[in-house]
Specification:
Helix content: 25-40%
Oligomer: single chain
Order of helices and strands: EHEEHEEHHHHHEEHEEEHEEEEEEEEH
Largest sheet: 5 strands, antiparallel
Shape: globular
Number of domains: 2
CATH topology of the largest domain: Beta-lactamase
CATH class of the largest domain: Alpha Beta
Length: 374
């Protein structure tokens, strides 16, 4: 079943955090959240606007995943490479696919990959930055503003720990992004002519923390060490963010471990597991829609509700897997997730039977045809 992430997730992050004195970081700002519900487990200056360095590439990579065809191969120009800092090793004249640009950003933190992506998707860096800020507004990142696709320092380039957690949670819903964020090492093929080369992820938590699934490192002299991390274990998912943290690896290890231990899980069952929807003009009178049990994680106890949204009837033909309705899973007034519900089988349209008048007309045609022939 396809799951649709709701931007309402961002609003959940405004809830009162889970209080604990067991945690603390060396960061200027930090946050730890339940990635599934947005509940805040721990926060520290989470709304302070700060530079976020290459964790910026979470947004750049997300837009590439949402809008690019990974098979597209482009030829890099000198103009695209007018950026300093970390690199995946691109040169003017190189041929590279959008797939390899994604991994060049997420593993090698290539500023060159981010800049090339900006030109491909936005026409210019400024054009792409507008797309970044439009997406930030769509996600409700009220204390975030982008100026570069790579994360190089600028007075107009900033975010908060809370906003970066929202962004990471949203981005990890994208399968292509999640795969790149969790990849420890990738063999790519680019150059002039393209040749094979390997890139290793800068995020060492992928090797040192059991269950780590990303997300992105960052560093400039102005921003200090920045890190957005995520981990999942036993049906639980957490995201940690630290900005300007000299002890980020140890801090994130402690944050992720604490978050996973603080989260509980439950299963939301609907009143029925199968629903029969009447079918109009079908060979069958109804089509079955199945609702699977939904596993939910939470920090604070609350009332979980499943709200089924199905039509009173549908028209044939219907294909197996075709969208019929949805189920909304909620904790109180907050939407956790919305899951599509689909038809369990094909329903063909009913073959129309000729009316009495149509049959009579056909008979008359036959009679007159025979009279004329004679």
């Amino acid at each position: 079943m396809k799951k649709n992430f709701s931007v309402i997730f961002a609003l959940i992050l405004l809830t009162i955090p889970f209080k604990t004195s067991a945690l603390g970081t060396s960061a200027k700002a930090a946050i730890l959240i339940n990635a599934d519900t947005g509940e805040v487990i721990f926060e520290q200056n989470a709304d302070e606007r700060l530079p976020m360095a290459s964790t910026t590439k979470i947004m750049t990579a997300l837009l590439l995943c949402e809008n690019g065809d990974f098979r597209t191969e482009i030829t890099v120009t000198a103009e695209m490479l007018r950026v300093e800092g970390s690199s995946m090793g691109l040169l003017a004249g190189d041929k590279v696919t959008l797939h390899d640009l994604l991994y060049g950003m997420m593993l090698a933190s290539g500023n060159d990959a981010a800049n090339v992506t900006a030109y491909v998707l936005g026409g210019t860096v400024d054009g792409f930055v507008k797309k970044m800020n439009d997406k930030a507004e769509e996600l409700g990142l009220r204390n975030t503003h982008f100026k570069t696709p790579s994360g190089l320092d600028s007075q107009e380039h900033y975010s908060t720990a809370r906003d970066m957690a929202v962004l990471a949670a949203y981005a990890l819903k994208n399968e292509a992004f999640a795969a790149a964020a969790a990849c420890e090492k990738a063999t790519l093929n680019y150059g002039n002519p393209p040749y094979r080369r390997s890139l290793t992820n800068h995020n060492k938590l992928l090797k040192t923390f059991d269950g780590a699934v990303g997300v992105k490192t960052g560093f400039t002299k102005k921003s200090g060490r920045c890190l957005v991390s995520a981990a999942k274990r036993d049906g639980k998912r957490v995201i940690a963010v630290t900005l300007n943290d000299s002890n980020d690896w140890n801090d994130h290890t402690a944050l992720l471990e604490y978050g996973l231990s603080a989260i509980k899980t439950a299963t939301i069952d609907c009143e029925k597991s199968k629903y029969e929807i009447p079918v109009i003009n079908g060979v069958e009178n109804s089509v079955t829609v199945s609702v699977e049990p939904y596993k939910v994680s939470f920090v604070k106890e609350g009332d979980f509700v499943a709200e089924i949204m199905l039509p009173k009837f549908v028209y044939a033909p219907i294909k197996k897997g075709e969208y019929i309705g949805s189920v909304k899973y909620m904790k109180g007034d907050s939407i956790i997730d919305t899951v599509d519900l689909s038809a369990d089988c094909d329903i063909s349209p009913e073959v129309a039977k000729p009316s009495i008048f149509a049959a009579l007309f056909e008979n008359l045609k036959y009679v007159f045809k025979n009279i004329w022939v004679k």
